[in-house]
Specification:
Blueprint (H helix, E strand, L loop, with lengths): L2 H4 L14 H9 L2 E5 L4 E3 L8 E6 L2 E6 L5 E7 L4 E2 L1 H6 L6 E4 L3 E6 L1 H7 L3 H27 L2 H12 L5 E2 L3 H8 L3 H13 L3 E4 L2 E4 L8
Antiparallel strand pairs: 1-8, 2-7, 3-6, 3-8, 4-5, 4-7, 9-11, 10-11
């Protein structure tokens, strides 16, 4: 089965905006499918990137490890995102660590296909637009981390984490590390959001009931 048949949604992702249909089909079908059943580190901060991969299913969490040994959540990447283009093109080491969700699926892009894509003005524009959006998100998250209350930070990250699915399976310890507070504080703030009817909890899972009002 060709990749375009298995993952028809990839024809419509942002990185391929404005490109000829035949080019998109050829690009996607020449990629190699890579699957991870369990959460797996696919790129490690400070190490060379093995190649460009396009996320077809699942998500990828990007984290940054500081000199003190503390790890900071940077962004959660959604399907359709091309990962490590800048590192591969610049031949510089990875700026962060990328860890997959369970059952994540990628298309590994051959270098010759990337070189062909880089000759397309539309692809270059899409790539720069993608990094512009990521930088905009990073600016927002840094502002929130510096000036936002714990409640505001939790609401913001729940909003981000629920972009693809309203069921969040990340543990309270993970959220506490992401936000920079104790697990007990997270538990207290989640109780407030439950009382407001914005979320529900089923065991360890958080279900976002009213995503838009998380940011109000």
């Amino acid at each position: 089965m060709e990749n375009t048949t298995r993952f028809p949604h990839l024809r419509k992702v942002d990185i391929f905006n404005g490109l000829d249909a035949s080019f998109k089909t050829d690009f996607i079908n020449k990629c190699r499918i890579v699957s991870y059943n369990r959460p797996t580190v696919i790129y490690k901060q400070g190490q060379p990137a093995s190649g460009v991969m396009i996320l077809a299913h699942g998500y990828v969490d990007v984290t940054y490890l500081g000199d003190s040994g503390m790890e900071m959540f940077v962004i959660r990447l959604r399907p359709g995102t091309a990962i490590s283009e800048m590192e591969v093109i610049s031949e510089l080491p990875c700026l962060g660590t990328c860890k997959t969700s369970p059952n994540a699926i990628f298309l590994a892009c051959p270098r010759e296909q990337l070189d062909l894509a880089l000759q397309q003005p539309a692809y270059l524009k899409n790539m720069i637009t993608s990094y512009y959006k990521r930088l905009s998100y990073v600016n927002w998250s840094k502002y929130l981390a510096q000036f936002g209350t714990v409640e505001e930070r939790l609401r913001g990250y729940l909003y981000v984490l629920s972009e693809q699915t309203h069921t969040i399976r990340d543990t309270q310890s993970y959220l506490a590390n992401m936000i920079g507070c104790s697990r007990q504080t997270i538990n207290k703030e989640l109780r407030v959001l439950r009382d407001e009817g914005l979320i529900s909890q089923i065991g360890s899972e958080i279900v976002v009931l009213d995503r838009e009002h998380l940011m109000v």
